[in-house]
Amino acid sequence: MIESNYYLSRIIEALLISTAVAFLMTPVSIRIAHMIGVIDRPKDGRRMHRNPVPRFGGMAIFIGSMTALTIPAGMNQMIKVAMLGGLLMYGLGVLDDVRDLKPAVKFGGQLLIAAIVYILGIRITFLSNFFGAAVTDDHANVILSGGLAFLITAVWIVGITNAVNLMDGLDGLAAGSVAIMCMSLAYIAYIHGTRLGSMPVCIALVAVAGGCLGFLPFNFSPAKTFMGDGGALYLGYMIAVLSVISPLKQATVVGALVPMLTLAVPIFDTVFAMLRRVLNHESIMSADRGHLHHHLMAAGFGQRRSVLIMYGIVGIMGIVAVLISRGLYKDAFALFLIALLYLGIIIVPKRPKKNLRTIITQDTMETKKENFVDYLNYERARRKQLRETGKAEDPTKFIDADPEDRNGQDTDRGNKR
Fold it and tell me: Which of 38, 40, 83, 283 is deepest in the core (most CB within 10 A)?
């Protein structure tokens, strides 16, 4: 009981420190962005904003979370390795923000960082034995060889890092979603902390979540600043690495499913994007308008409502992960189906005659055109009905589809922040 209270106070301390420092450092990052010229300008049709916006806010998230990690007790060697890799990944992202690195160079840097943390001890060394493989340990886990362990660890770290980067397409989407993911994993680490010794991981996850929460008031629509690649790559790396080093991976089913379910939305979005680009004969590294948040925007929800919908889906998957960690598989499965239903509603257009390939490869501009045509047809029918009934229409009356767009917000920012 005394140990639990001790760690609970450290968790609260980490949350307050990271949130406060990130909140105070965000205005500083805005001024630095103007000084060094790190400004996101709406130079193409993928951008959501119409006015130049500084994109150096990742500095506030980085400093806030790192400050919280160095002050509270509960640190261990693996957390220190994770912090070292976080410093390197943030530096890579800042370099990309300033110099606009080529995708191959950025990808190579991410692989190098993944290799460094693997050598220093952060690695996936086994998988759950779902299919009855022969080489297992006492917990029925499949033991991985050195080469395969490195490959899976690198794919996980680099994949999740870029998945979070792809989420950074609407004001507040990446920061809020990562905060929800981190808090979900932190709660799982906390409730199993005494048995599995996962309290240091819990503190680290809370520190990262606090950095996002302190930054979010400046990033929510209409955004005053963006986190940039520095913030997005750092957040993706930290949540990927902390989910790997969590002692929860010692439990077979929980260790395999909990991190993947918590990160299900960015993983799904990334895999779906890669499939879409392959079918369109495009590079998998190219940017497009087919992400989940683009579909929501094309449906006319606006930035704030689209982001809140995405928060809800991420939150549902976080609850699913918590339920599985507690052995409530039936309850978790029911919520998982609900989340899949919402993802299907977002992806599948309202005209079901389209085939599967068309659904996957569709451009959200087509959805906007379809919605506009429906709106015009509705207006024609409404005006015809008014003429037939003899009612005059107020000439000053207008329909504003989305009040958010009057505040200088466009309809698509893309992935570069």
Answer: 40
User: Which residues pair with residue 54 across a beta bridge?
Assistant: 39
Q: Measured between alpha carbons, how far is residue 224 from residues 23, 32, 205, 306 in Å?
A: 13, 14, 26, 18
Does 195 or 159 have the greater pLDDT score?
Answer: 159
CA dist 352 and 106 (Å) reads 39
pLDDT digits (tens, 9 = 90+) for 377-410: 667 777 777 777 765 555 445 444 444 444 444 4
Whole-angstrom Cα distance, residue 96 to residue 175? 19
Instruction: Count the Cβ atoms, other than its own, within 10 Å of residue 9.
Output: 12
Query: Range of 383's domain?
Result: 363-401
Question: How far is C-alpha 328 from the chain's CA centre?
Answer: 26
Total count of residues recorded for the chain: 417
Could you tell me if 207 and 299 lie in one domain?
A: yes
Residue 214, pLDDT score? 96
302 φ/ψ angles, rounded to the nearest 5 degrees: 85, 165
Which structure tokens are listed for 374? 């429906």
Residues paired with residue 40 on neighbouring β-strands, in sequence order: 53
**29 with 133, same domain?**
yes
Residue 129, both tokens:
């034995």
d(CA 145, CA 127): 11
Question: Do both 309 and 375 map to the same domain?
Answer: no
163 and 287, same domain (yes or no): yes
Query: Which of 351, 24, 56, 7 minimizes the C-alpha distance to 224?
Result: 56
Are 321 and 257 within 8 A, CB to CB?
A: yes
Are 56 and 204 part of one and the same domain?
yes
The percent of residues in the chain predicted with pLDDT above 90, rounded, is 28
